Every structure is written in C-alpha cells, then in structure tokens.
UniProtKB/TrEMBL annotation:
SUPFAM superfamilies per the UniProt record, alphabetical: Glutathione synthetase ATP-binding domain-like (SSF56059), PreATP-grasp domain (SSF52440)
Keyword Transcription regulation: no
A Pfam cross-reference name: GSP_synth
Name used for this protein in its record: Glutathionylspermidine synthase pre-ATP-grasp-like domain-containing protein
Domain Glutathionylspermidine synthase pre-ATP-grasp-like: 12-382
Record key words, sorted: ATP-binding, Ligase, Magnesium, Metal-binding, Nucleotide-binding
Residues making up the signal peptide according to the UniProt record: none
Annotated GO MF terms: ATP binding; ligase activity; metal ion binding
Record bears the keyword Ubl conjugation: no
Organism: Proteobacteria bacterium 228
Amino acid sequence: MRRVLITERPDWRTTAEALGFCFHTIEGEPYWDERAYYAFTLQQIEDELEQPTNELHAMCMDMLVRVINSEQLLSRLGIPDTFYDLIANSWRAGHRHLYGRMDLSYSGLEPAKLLELNYDTPTSIYESAAFQWGWLEECMALGWLPAWADQFNSIEDRLRDLFASLQIQAPFYFASLQGMEEDKATTDYLAGIAAQVGIDSRYIALEDIGLRGGRFVDLQQWPVTQLFKLHPWEFIFEEPFGHAIAASGTRFYEPAWKAILSNKGILPLLWEQYPHHPNLLECYLDSEPARAVPKGWVRKPFFSREGANVSLCTEKGTALAQPGPYGYGPHVLQKLAPLPCFDGNYTLIGSWVIGDKAAGIGIREDDSLITKDSSRFVPHIILD
C-alpha cells in the first residue's frame, strides 16, 4: 500500500457537476481529491481487505441474531423497548438489506482493524462506486496509469443485481432530509441504479411523507409501500411517526434490524464474543464517560457519525476531540488503532458490503487522526 502523486484531470470539476456530484468541494477545500491515489497489490486487496470484510460481516450477522433474541442485549444497546418487536419482526420476516460500510484502519503492514460499522445510513457510495471508477478509466485512457491497473470496485454491479433480485413491482421511494446535498446525491444514485433494472424509482423528501389511515403516503396521497430512507433508526425511534411503522405496511430499507449493527454498542459485544480476533479492537462500555480518555484509547458515543463527538488520546498523551451533536447517551471505549500516515495524511479505508458480500473500498484522508465529514476522498488502484 502506497500513496502516489498524480496530475489532476483538468476538467474533472465540470464532469463532476454534470453528473450531479456537486459537493466535490466543501467550504473551498477539496472533498474529492485526485492529486494522489493509493496503490495496493492484489494480495492486499483479496487477503487483507476483502476476506476480512466478509468474515467480519458474517460475525456481525451472527451477533445480530444473538441480540435480537435477548432483551438484555437490546437494552445494553440503548434501544427503546417499545421497538424490540419491530426490530425482531423485521429480521424474522426476512426483510432484505442493501448495503453497509465498515471503517477500517489498515496500513498494508498489519491486519486491518474494524473501527466501526456504518450499516444504516452510510454515504460516499457514489464516490466509491461511480466517480472513482470514472477517474480510473480516464486516467488509463490518458496514459497516466498502466493499462493493467484495476480497482476493487464491483459496488455498482452488485447493487444492480441486488435491486433486480428484490423483484419490486410497486413504486420504490427514496427519501432524505431537505437541504442535505450529500444525502440527496446518495438517494439519487441508488434510485438511478434501481431504475436501471426496471423499478419505478421516485424521490421524496422525508418531510413530505404523510400518514393517512395508519399508512405512509406521498404528496398525492399514494401509499408508500417501499421506502429507502437515509435517516437513522435511532432518530426515527424518537419521532412521532416511529410508532406508526409497525402497522403501516411499508417495507423499509434499511430494515429496522440494521439499528442493531449501526449502533457502536455492538463493538463491545463483538469483542466479548470474539476476543483477540485479529481484525477486532479491544472495546468496552465506557462506565465513566466524564473522565479524560486514557492513553491509547478512543471514546465514541453509541450514536454518532463522521467523527462527531469522538475523542482520543494517543500513547504519548496527545488528546484530540471532535465536537458534534451526539454527545448524549452511552459511550464505548475502544483501543486506539492509529490511522496510518502517508505524507502527513491520515488514511481511513471504508470497505463496502453490498447485500452480504464485500464489494469495494473508498478511502478518506485527513490532517487529523479523526476522520470527519469534510475529510478528503482519494481514489485507489490495484497494481500487481
């Protein structure tokens, strides 16, 4: 694994905006950053990223069943007891899921370590699946990359096959909150993939979904029977419409059982079940979240995203913290696996799971050990 400098394509911003990728720059700083790429060997991809991702996913699914069958474990995850049945029934009824992303610390020198699961509302899938593939093809056509270069990226093909397998005949609604540009881009991308296999895909703002006679409806009062919602289950559990879900007749994507896996409280449970697994980090429920983070550990809220409210302390005693809106509720303490640093850039790998199989990676860089929503997205290739 190495970081390689490369020339930017001169017109990539115009290309991005024409494709709807309009958040390529955030507050004047690059979000998509093609001034460098990461190169992997095929062995690193297959044995050290793809295979561990599949194994970790299988472990997570086994743990999911344990939690569903235990009110004590559901309580440990801070899930309201009024939603235990909704979660369990969504699993036992076989409600399908689409995708998830594992965040890994990996340097190419040691086993990848699972930092957390983004299994309910992961974003950056468009950048991972489509835009970095287009970058690879164009750079090879320009002669900037070898003709034999490849990429760990079957995300779009697997999504297409997955949507086709759902055999959905009713309109499929894709929803996000108004004003959230990245979320809207994610829903648009997924809706576009669904449309490619003949699904009637429709976007609706979450705020525009109504409730009539116990059923969710669109602005024309048509029933919403299939809904992809880029909105966390833990928020839904606290919202008035949450209690209408069980009897609504709507099939949700991601399903309610994803509330278990997207909760960072799953990390101590995984460590308890699989202690010293080479791809797991020591992790416990934090019984004293008000104290300073111990050296060599990271504190994370059960419910947080994109580095918000994460704090850490290095082995040398350097403390870092990221503010955010998720400081409430229980926290975990996880052993610090410092992100590898390449030329001053701390690198995190997002490993995508489509359905139940590893399908590709996206890489984020930051000047800090904490990866944030503004951290740069950098493409990758495979060279063997």
